[in-house]
Design brief:
globular, nine-stranded mixed sheet, about 35% helix, 11 helices, binds S-adenosylmethionine, about 325 residues, alpha/beta, single chain, Rossmann fold
C-alpha cells in the first residue's frame, strides 16, 4: 500500500507562524482615476505580492478532477448569507435588476441570487469552472471573464457585485476600479467567503488540524493566508463599509464526503503533483476512519461521521449615491 511521504506532527510550521507579522504591514493604495470618491484598499505588502504571484496560477482551476470535486463537494452558502446580502442591498436601493457574481466558480454563489434579481451574471476566469455551472436557470448567465476587466458589463448597470471565496485571487486595484464603473449609485459590493473549517468530534478535528497546519502550508499559493485571517487584511473602498463575522456554514458529512471536499483544495492537488505516486487523501481517509472507529467502536456504517463548521466572513459596502 502507498505510504505518505510526510509524518503529521504536532508542531507549527514556520510558514504558519512567520507570515503573520509581515502580514500586518499595510499599505493604502489611492486610486486617483476614480474621481471624488474614496477608492482605496488596504492590502499588506505580503498579500499584494502574493496576489501578483497568484494571477499566474489561474491554471489551478483548470484541473478537470479538481473542478468536478469542487462542483460536487464545496459547501453551499446558507439562506442567512443571502438574506444578509439582500437586506444590505435594500438599505440603499430598491432596484434588483442585475447582480454580477465575479469568481463564480461552478455557480454556488451565483444561483441563489437568481431568486432575488431579475438578471444574474456569473463570471469566472476559468472555462472549466464555467462549464460546470448550471444551465437551467433562465435568468442566470455564466461567462468566462476575468475580474480585472469587466468591459462586457455596461457602466452603471449593476445593483450588486459579489465575490465569494475568490477575492484573494484577484488584482484588487483593477477589480475595484471596474466595480465602481459597473455599479449604479447606491449599488452594493459584497465580498465574502469562509475560513478554514473545524470538525466535531474533536478527535477527528485534531487529526485534520495537524494535516492542515503541518502538511499543506507550503502547497497553498499565497492568498490562503488572507482566507485564514477571514480577509481582515482587506477593506472595501466605500465609506461606511462594514463586516459581518456572525454567520457560519455547518454540514454533516461522511468521512468519504469530507475527503471529497479536501480533494477540491488546490493545495492537495499541488501536494499530489509534487509527491508522486499516490494520493495523500488515501492516507487521510484511512486515518480518519481508524480514529472514527476507535471513538465509536462500531464498523463505521453511519451515514454521517462528522460535522464540519466553516465560519463565514463578509465585507459589505455601498457605492455612494
Ligand atoms: C474558490 S473558487 C470560488 C467559487 C465560488 N464563488 C464559491 O464561492 O464557491 C475561486 C474562483 O475564482 C476564480 N478566479 C480566480 N481568479 C480570478 C480572476 N482574476 N477573475 C475571475 N475569476 C477568478 C477561479 O477560477 C475560481 O473558480
Amino acid at each position: 500500500m502507498w505510504m505518505p511521504k510526510v509524518m503529521i506532527h504536532d508542531v507549527n510550521t514556520p510558514e504558519v507562524k512567520g507570515g503573520r507579522s509581515r502580514y500586518k504591514k499595510k499599505v493604502l493604495i489611492q486610486l486617483s482615476n476614480i474621481g471624488k470618491r474614496v477608492l482605496a484598499q488596504t492590502l499588506s505588502f505580503q498579500s499584494r505580492r502574493q496576489l501578483t504571484d497568484m494571477s499566474k496560477n489561474w491554471a489551478l482551476f483548470t484541473n478537470a478532477k479538481q473542478t468536478e470535486l469542487y462542483a460536487q463537494y464545496r459547501p453551499r452558502y446558507t439562506e442567512e448569507v443571502f438574506k444578509t446580502i439582500i437586506d444590505y442591498c435594500g438599505e440603499t436601493s430598491s432596484d434588483f435588476h442585475l447582480a454580477v457574481d465575479v469568481g463564480c466558480g461552478s455557480g454556488q454563489s451565483t444561483e441563489p441570487l437568481a431568486k432575488h434579481f431579475r438578471r444574474v451574471l456569473g463570471l469566472d476566469v476559468s472555462a472549466m469552472q464555467i462549464a460546470k455551472a448550471p444551465t437551467n436557470i433562465p435568468n442566470c448567465t455564466f461567462k468566462v471573464n476575468k475580474a480585472e476587466d469587466l468591459s462586457s458589463v455596461k457602466t452603471g448597470s449593476a445593483d450588486l457585485v459579489t465575490v465569494a471565496q475568490a477575492f484573494h485571487w484577484m488584482d484588487g486595484e483593477k477589480f475595484f476600479a471596474e466595480v465602481d464603473r459597473i455599479l449604479k449609485p447606491g449599488g452594493s459590493l459584497i465580498i465574502y467567503g469562509y475560513t478554514t473549517c473545524s470538525l466535531t468530534p474533536k478527535e477527528l478535528d485534531d487529526y485534520f488540524q495537524k494535516f492542515y497546519h503541518n502538511v499543506l502550508p507550503s502547497y497553498w499559493t499565497g492568498g490562503r493566508k488572507a482566507v485564514e485571517d477571514s480577509y481582515t487584511c482587506f477593506s472595501i473602498p466605500y465609506e461606511g463599509w462594514k463586516r459581518n463575522d456572525e454567520m457560519k456554514i455547518e454540514k454533516d458529512l461522511s468521512i468519504d464526503e469530507f475527503v471529497g471536499y479536501l480533494g477540491s483544495w488546490s493545495a492537495v492537488n499541488e501536494y499530489n503533483q509534487k509527491n508522486p505516486p499516490g494520493n495523500i487523501l488515501e492516507t487521510v481517509q484511512h486515518e480518519l476512519k481508524n480514529i472514527n472507529q476507535s471513538i465509536n467502536k462500531t464498523d463505521n456504517k453511519h451515514a454521517t461521521d462528522l460535522r464540519v463548521t466553516w465560519p463565514v466572513f463578509m465585507l459589505m459596502g455601498h457605492k455612494p449615491k
